[in-house]
Design goal:
globular, single chain, EmrE-like, membrane, Sugar transporter, mainly alpha, transport
Length: 291
């Protein structure tokens, strides 16, 4: 049963980019939809579980959720620039490499020569995987989609994911009052919605509330919210390391979903490199838990 729960985050996070792309609209419509849909799940979960959370933890979690939204906005923009099947593997690698480096330098993880060797060896493998998935045979306008500028944009916006991923460790270092994993889930998703609203305000795009895509994108938001809430129980039932490895299956779902469902064309040669790259990313992700 725990493994079935552990597959829910991979499924939910894997199909979210596909649903959001199908729903259409701009990144403004999409990030609002994610925030609204996830908040619906957060409110229902809070009502059902009745968790404990201090006001300090509530506010801190909202801020982290808002920071996460900046990274997701960057990913939505990158979907349009490079396609889902290219963006998701690159984003996954950026997240894994960044989180691992932060964990090593700031949180004291991967201590000792053996851990460092395995850990950074795994990162080399996932970087190779990212390079393989970005191989293209296209010419002209199509080739222009995978540029240094587009990749760097995705990398810079990924910083929001890095901040979000380390905040549970901050909870352990500072006193934020009583709280549970279920308790901080609602403020996290409300923070995402807050970040989306601030983005609409500062870009002068409140008119997007007239777009039907603004509300269609609530569906992928529900998918994301269910996956995020299920991850709490997956980590509790399977352990953080095993749950994390299972979530990496979302790369497979999103990448090949982009090719098969969104019809993001890849030549036979590109497909070979993509498959090899995905294998490298999965293998590297698994190796990091042994570091």
């Amino acid at each position: 049963m725990n493994y079935l729960i552990g597959l829910i985050p991979a499924l939910g996070w894997g199909i979210m980019p596909l649903l959001a792309t199908k729903a259409g609209g701009s990144e403004k419509n999409q990030i609002f939809g994610i925030g609204a849909g996830a908040s619906i799940i957060g409110i229902l979960a809070f009502i059902i579980t009745k968790p404990s959370v201090s006001w300090q933890a509530f506010i801190f979690s909202m801020v982290c959720g808002a920071i996460w939204s900046t990274a997701q906005i960057g990913q939505f923009i990158s979907f349009k620039r490079m396609g889902v099947s290219t963006t998701v593997p690159l984003s996954t690698v950026f997240q894994l490499v960044g989180n691992s480096i932060i964990g090593t330098l700031w949180l004291g993880e991967w201590q000792g020569a053996k851990a460092l060797t395995i850990g950074f060896g795994a990162l080399v493998i996932v970087v190779i995987g990212a390079l393989l998935t970005s191989v293209t045979d296209k010419n002209g306008e199509e080739a222009g989609k995978i540029t240094v500028g587009n990749v760097l944009f995705l990398l810079v916006t990924t910083i929001g994911y890095w901040v979000y991923s380390v905040f549970p460790n901050v909870f352990n270092k500072i006193n934020l009052g009583a709280h549970s994993s279920e308790g901080i889930f609602l403020p996290e998703v409300l923070g995402i919605l807050l970040g989306a609203l601030l983005y609409l305000i500062f870009t002068g795009e409140l008119k997007t509330f007239k777009d039907k895509e603004q509300y269609l994108n609530i569906i992928p938001g529900l998918s994301w919210g269910i996956a995020a809430f299920a991850y709490i129980f997956a980590g509790r039932g399977l352990g953080t390391n095993t749950a994390f490895v299972l979530t990496q299956l979302n790369v497979i779902i999103a990448t090949f979903g982009g090719i098969l469902i969104l019809h993001e064309h890849k030549s036979p040669r590109e497909m070979k490199y993509t498959v090899a790259g995905i294998i490298c990313i999965i293998v590297g992700s698994v190796l990091t838990i042994f570091a």
